[in-house]
Amino acid sequence: MPTHIDDAFKDNLIELLTEELKVLRAKAGISQQELAKRIGISRQTYGVIESRKQRMTWNTFLSLLFLFEKNEGTSKIIRQIGAYPPELESYLNMNNK
Q1: Which domain holds residue 70?
Q2: pLDDT-based confidence at 5, cuts 50/70/90?
Q3: What is the pTM of this model?
Q4: Is residue 48 scored above 70 in pLDDT?
Q5: Contact 70, 9 (CB under 8 A)
Q6: Contact 60, 18 (CB under 8 A)
Q7: For the residues of 42-87, what is the DSSP string, one character each?
Q8: Within a domain: residue 2?
């Protein structure tokens, strides 16, 4: 299990997810307002992230990743685009101490 995920790796994952946010949100069938509410940010903040005017934080990335990973319409997409690679899944898996 990886013990550290570096900033370059995080930046790459954030970029991969950001590029597909509109598609993922549409596939999930959720509004910006509802998605923002579910992950604990304002609709305005989500809107500027989706429009690529602001970079999302790592915490926002993880919140979006888990939301999309649990959605039937988007779980395969986040893996296909490389936003949830096995290295990250292993790193986040708390059962592998």
Answers
A1: 7-92
A2: confident
A3: 0.90
A4: yes
A5: no
A6: no
A7: -HHHHHHHHTTSSPPPHHHHHHHHHHHHTSTTTHHHHHHTTSS-HH
A8: no
